[in-house]
């Protein structure tokens, strides 16, 4: 199956200073936007653990559970508990979260001597990658909304007559980084 990965880039409008994320040259204010050089952005690249924690609320322990699970075609809680040397309740909680995220599948298997056991298996690498991308893109949209809301709050403070003279702890910063 052919990869559908595309290169995303950040673009800046020279007229209004707005930024957009896209896969091709974007337009804003009737003109083409300029691609932003990554070296000009004062934000470091996330490592795997930080990304998983920030976007998906996956802890280091949960990441360890996930890695162990990904190394096996299927596994029970008992087997996984022994592999990660954690309490059963901890492993169960992490597995439930991984199932909720759509990274892991849970099935009930009938035992030959009677009874049932839950068996966990990982989804395909492509399915996991797609699920992570969906979660990340959705999170990014929400994060942009949070940033836009912050900007509206700052503008409201200016309109209401508060400024940095009467409130010295407050600094209003434009998108281009100037005060």
Task: Please characterize this protein's 3D structure.
This protein has 179 residues and is an alpha+beta fold. Among the domains are: 38 residues, no CATH class; 79 residues, Winged helix-like DNA-binding domain superfamily/Winged helix DNA-binding domain (Arc Repressor Mutant, subunit A, Orthogonal Bundle), CATH 1.10.10. It contains five helices and eight strands, in the order βββββααβααββα. The strands form three sheets. A three-stranded antiparallel sheet has the order 2-1-5, with no helix packed on it. A three-stranded antiparallel sheet has the order 6-8-7. It has a two-stranded antiparallel ribbon with strand order 3-4. A hairpin with a 6-residue loop joins strand 1 and strand 2. Helix 2 crosses helix 4. The chain starts with 8 loop residues before the first strand and ends in a 20-residue tail after the last helix.
